[in-house]
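pipeline stage [seq->struct] | target=Peptidase M20 dimerisation domain-containing protein | organism=Diacronema lutheri | residues=491
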Amino acid sequence: MFCHRVPEFPLDKDSELFASVAARVADARALSLPELHDLFSVLTSIRRDIHAHPEPGFEEARTHATLRRLLTSFAHVPDAAIRTVAKTGLVVDITGAAEPRGDAHKVRTVAIRADMDALRMTEKNLALPYRSTHQGVAHLCGHDGHMASLIGLAVLVQRRAAQLPSDVVVRLLFQPAEEGPGGALPMIAEGCMAGVDEVYGYHNWPSVPLGHMWVTEGPMMGHPAEFTIKIKGRGGHGSQPQVAVDPVLVSAHVIIALQSIVSRSVHPREQAVVSVTTVHGGEVANVIPDELTLTGTTRDLNAEVYAVIEARMRTIVASICEAFGASAEFSIRPSYAVVENHAEQAAAVRALGARLLGEERVSKGDLPILGAEDFSYFLHEAPGAFFLLGGKEAAVQGLAAYGNGQAAERSNCMCHNTAFDFNDNIIPFAVCFWVRLLEERLALRLYTEEELPMGYGAEPPQPGGAGADGSGPVRATGARGDVQHKKARKS
């Protein structure tokens, strides 16, 4: 992650590093590269502090307070530019004072979103110094890193706000409850997308190599639904199944038959999933229960496929239960809409990614995937794009960005794994990518290539380099070529 000092944890706003960076970013003068590295060290410390204090959807009180304090005291955003929405969410408008541009540019307000909430899961990174301190809640999807990236963007944009035309707005959306029940729609209902011309977001993706990007136009992430099937039979003794109606046996036939839907009822060109994920029934080994409950999820990419899945599920459940003399209650609850990227904005993300990372590192990859995101609703309000940034890398001993040799293994765990940890090496590139994307979409320049090298953060630190122990050169690479920087000082 190109930092020349080991990031501090826990976050201490009175520490020398935090205070010096906060003071340095308060003015618009160019940051030296060591100072830029210090900024990313502090952002890593911020990320780890948030990681240690996870909060579930609409309960992100500490997270909200931490973000607000950082926005005002660290990024120096005026308090009047920050408002609370959707209980714990934040809308931040960074505005300029330069001459307005009038109607010459169609894009004046660009919104960028980061999700805030943690999962109701127990983290198993027991050796991690910044592991979750909240039992049963953990940042196992990387939202802590998404927030740190957006704080970094706030710092870099606010310090150049005087260069923004007065009719241009950079809007930062800190969204609660992405993991459920969904914070995007409440934020939209409270006006977070009013006046927005384009909207963007990213998600870390541990199965994609660090320094790579996946993006596509059209469907990018799926439409989920959750179902419950309660099968009602007639209980009895396990030694006399002939006088019972066994819901366990019925459920086995239902589970198998449901797997025929995608392979036999959905067109092979389409993507879909039907997964039974829980089975609950019975209490005693020699007793056939009266009833049994199945739950699970379906995924699809369009309404027509979902209609086929739901209809076939209802038919299969009802007919199999009838055949065995049982009955069933079936319910299904659709959730977030499909994430569908707009063509122009997806192309802009792809082109910028290729310019910063290299053509070979930006692709459609395995998209669309059937994971779900309520970022989809922001895309209903304004054109935009959502994309994935890779976090996978080989284990390297002694990296300052990680603190121990097990971190790469953690970072390579998929999201929602109990051993997952966000790869901090994503943060520098994510922040710099956001800056360059804003510049392109708003048709302005905030930082020269010397101030913020193209492709900065595109490469992970190497053993023996500045990212490891503070010695050796720092390199920023991209499609525009390597930029060799001066030797970073030791702390």
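stage status: PASS
auto-comment: The chain has a mean pLDDT of 89. DSSP finds 13 helices and 18 strands in the chain.
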